[in-house]
Amino acid sequence: MCDKPQPTKTVKPDLCAENVPIDIRVSEAAPSSLPAYLARGRTVGAEFVDDNPTAELLFEEPLPEVAAPLAREISAGCILRSRYQLQQSIGQGGDSIVFRAQDLQLAATADSADSFVAIKILLPRQRTNVHALTRLRREFQQMQCLAHPGIVRVFNFECDGDVWFMTMELVAGQSVNSWMQAPSSPAQAVKIITVCCEALEHAHSAGILHGDLKPSNVLVADDGTVKLIDFGSAPSPGTRHTLGPGPSVAATPIYASPQVLAGSRAEPRDDIFSLACLSYSILSGGKHPFGRRPSLEAGRAKSAPTYVPAIPAKVFAVIERGLSAERQRRPASAAEFLRDLMDAGLGRLAVQRTSQRAVQNEKSVATAGRSGIENRVRQACGSFRRAPNRATLIGLAVVILAAAVVFRQLIDQNLSNAPASRPAGENIALLAAASMPVQPSPPTAAESEPDVQTPPITRDPGLISFEQATLQASPGQSLVAIPVKRLQSTRGSARVAWRVEHGSAQPGVDYPRLEPQIVRFIEGQAVRSLFIPLIRTHASLTSGPRSFTVALQRVAGGAALGPIARVTVIIEPAPSAAHAEPFQARADQ
């Protein structure tokens, strides 16, 4: 029975200083070259139709299945720890389900309206998954250290038998994912982005990353309050754990940065990438900058989000910078990202659109008013036509006659005052000409055939070149990023082809087989990066140095090649076979 007391365990709530370190050890089997969410049962480049659920980024082999007794079913009506009575499910993700619940202890001593909480519980299939439990505990640890009006509060982390759960503040409202489905005010959109930036800046200042910022992890309360949830997807910098990215890291592929998808340890600028992606969706009415596809596919990072007219050009430029494939090109902090948005006119966007709506309403009212007046005039004229009055007709004739007399006197006076050199007919012609539009005169022979020919303006795309001719990759490295630069000019767009030429390193053994591809630069863009995954195996860590070459090739209508058109990538071995595994763990960190 759900309401029977079960053996309980409680985690002490004082965890802000990482007193309970997350130290999950898993087998160090050789990982694949691509994240498991791309490699297991899915085609690379497949469309992601929803931002849920969050996916585990398995850069190591998954743990073997552990035999466990049949998990206890948890549903509405169950009572956990003889204290929390579950009422209804209000949300579900890949690892857990969230219930609205009543704290019976608070209900007995306080106002019943203040006794409701949200309870996040691991799903039955995840209760034996050490990584899912790690993320739930990490979420509690990190969110307990945060006190901000834009972040949901957490209360307790407890266990009832085999059921681990976390209690937190109950928010009556909806997620931004649902909020975007209905028409909304521009002011509310600006508020959501502002609160997300401020809450994220607060978390980063405390050394805590979010790791999975997306529309379904932002709540909008019924009173307009905005709050972030789910800070457990990525370990914070400095957290002690054995593996670098590891299986305890989770992210939503279509909102994660190329570096996170490639296996690098998360940094604040990776949260900025997700924040820019979220801002794009909010301002565009639910659209996605890359067509709901991951930012890294087949080893290639995207860097040109789709432009939408709903986002002003200057605001779009700031968002585009936040979505840069290179970390260093993104804003360094959430505060800087918000400041750049406001400088670009984000704050004025709500005012302008609100004013436009008010003007449209006024025009509608004015149009309706004019229609009413016109109807009344037509009615009056109709009455006049139906019942003509002799006195009215006589009065109208007198007024017309008087006007004709006055007009004749004015003409005679103007003619008498006109200069003798200008005939009276010329005055009338000048008045008529002044009221007519000016027509351009046809060009003369001299104008149509100028002596000096002006050459057409051309936009030089510059040269495209690698930064250096040789690049070293350390053992255990999962990705090689090769910078490509535009030299001399960044005007207009530019493109160039690139291909991988194998040397002592072999495709399919040391790196995936890659077809020749095109790298494109947009107006003003000076640097791009080519991302090439590496296949890490025990043999590759212990064998000698291997190398392959990446070559640029000019395409029709593309930019010319610069001084360095080929780069050799050298994969160094580990110091020795005996140190291969420790070296790999250090390289991951």
Question: Can you tell me about this structure?
Answer:
The two termini are 45 Å apart. The protein has three domains: 8-60 and 71-168, 2-Layer Sandwich (Phosphorylase Kinase, domain 1), CATH 3.30.200.20; 173-351, Transferase(Phosphotransferase) domain 1 (Transferase(Phosphotransferase), domain 1), CATH 1.10.510; 463-588, Sandwich (Immunoglobulin-like), CATH 2.60.40. It is α+β, with helices and mostly antiparallel strands. α5 (186-205) packs antiparallel against α10 (346-386). It is built from 15 helices and 23 strands. The model is unreliable at 3-51, 59-68, 240-247, 383-387, 418-458 and 582-589 (pLDDT under 50). The strands form six sheets. Strands 1-7-8-6-5-4-3 form a seven-stranded antiparallel beta sheet.
Topology:
Layout: E1 8-10, H1 36-39, E2 55-56, E3 79-80, E4 84-92, E5 96-103, H2 104-109, E6 116-122, H3 130-144, E7 154-160, E8 163-168, E9 173-175, H4 176-179, H5 186-205, E10 218-221, E11 226-228, E12 250-251, H6 258-262, H7 268-283, E13 296-297, E14 300-301, H8 313-322, H9 334-343, H10 346-386, H11 390-417, H12 424-434, H13 445-448, E15 463-466, E16 470-473, E17 479-487, E18 494-502, E19 517-521, E20 527-533, H14 538-542, E21 546-553, E22 560-561, E23 566-571, H15 580-588
Parallel strand pairs: 15-22, 16-23
Antiparallel strand pairs: 1-7, 2-12, 3-4, 4-5, 5-6, 6-8, 7-8, 9-10, 10-11, 13-14, 15-17, 17-20, 18-19, 18-21, 21-23
Helix pairs in contact: 5-7, 5-9, 5-10, 7-8, 8-9
